[in-house]
């Protein structure tokens, strides 16, 4: 039997956990990365008991720190990584002038530098094997500017653009890249947006993480470049094509402020 291995970041909960669950059901061995050591150990124990054919390794890493991608790669470079899921992420609510730079810097390192560097390190071996799949978790936020969460929206836009570009470069190599762009999803993300988690909880159009993960997983398996779960979210992603960016930005600002109220 051919052994397949998947590496999933942010795997202790939410979409990362659901994606890891789908992968192990398909007999992948797993390398799970997260900062939350207790939850990561719980996930490993559950998977080891329920899916004894697969091996589960965990790496407790803060993915928002510089050079963490190299640290992860150094621990997995002896493995053939067949699937890379760059899932870990968090948001930060507030006006750019007033938000905390340390936290913003960590978010940029996580969404932009760690995602890019880990992909850079793992991709060459996939190309050499002429086989591999990369799933980058972007967001519906990637399709327009986002006042009150400006850097989150901008960083998710980077992930989408980056994924689309390298997906094009990799045509014919046997390696595919998929950007999953979900709308609001019921995960711990809402609790990490701000210290006062009631400050920006979005209940409208809230999706189930299991459904979002399955949609993204199937899109990745098919080699689809951009995956937007939900008909309403697909519609929302097209709105900036038909109205001015100024108007789109005002609409997002109004939505954010209503959710804060």
How does this model look, in words?
- By secondary structure, the chain is of the alpha/beta class.
- It is built from nine helices and seven strands, in the order βαβαβαβαβαβααβαα.
- It has helices spanning 14-25, 37-50, 68-76, 101-129, 150-169, 189-192, 209-222, 231-242, 245-260; strands spanning 4-9, 28-34, 56-60, 83-86, 132-137, 175-180, 226-227.
- A seven-stranded parallel beta sheet has the order 3-2-1-4-5-6-7, sandwiched between helices.
- Strand 4 (83-86), helix 4 and strand 5 (132-137) form a beta-alpha-beta unit.
- Helix 4 (101-129) packs parallel to helix 5 (150-169).
- The longest helix has 29 residues, at 101-129.
- The model is unreliable at 189-204 (pLDDT under 50).
């Amino acid at each position: 039997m051919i052994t397949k291995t998947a590496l999933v970041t942010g795997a202790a909960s939410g979409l990362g956990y659901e994606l890891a669950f789908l992968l192990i059901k398909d007999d992948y061995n797993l390398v799970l990365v997260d900062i939350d050591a207790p939850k990561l150990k719980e996930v490993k124990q559950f998977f080891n008991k329920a899916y004894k054919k697969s091996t589960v390794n965990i790496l407790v890493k803060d993915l928002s720190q510089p050079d963490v991608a190299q640290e992860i790669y150094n621990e997995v470079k002896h493995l053939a990584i067949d699937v890379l899921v760059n899932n870990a992420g968090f948001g930060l609510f507030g006006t750019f002038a007033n938000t905390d730079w340390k936290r913003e810097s960590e978010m940029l390192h996580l969404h932009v530098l760690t995602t890019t560097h880990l992909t850079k390190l793992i991709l060459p071996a996939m190309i050499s094997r002429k086989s591999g799949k990369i799933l980058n978790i972007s967001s519906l936020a990637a399709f327009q500017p986002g006042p009150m969460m400006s850097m989150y929206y901008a960083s998710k836009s980077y992930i989408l653009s980056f994924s689309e570009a390298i997906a094009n470069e990799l045509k014919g190599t046997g390696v595919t890249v998929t950007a999953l762009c979900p709308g609001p999803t019921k995960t711990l993300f809402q609790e990490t947006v701000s210290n006062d988690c009631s400050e920006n909880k979005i209940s409208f159009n809230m999706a189930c993480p299991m459904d979002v993960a399955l949609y993204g997983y199937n899109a990745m398996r098919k080699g689809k470049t951009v995956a937007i779960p939900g008909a309403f979210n697909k519609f929302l992603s097209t709105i900036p094509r038909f109205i001015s960016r100024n108007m789109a930005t005002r609409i997002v600002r109004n939505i954010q402020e209503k959710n804060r109220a």
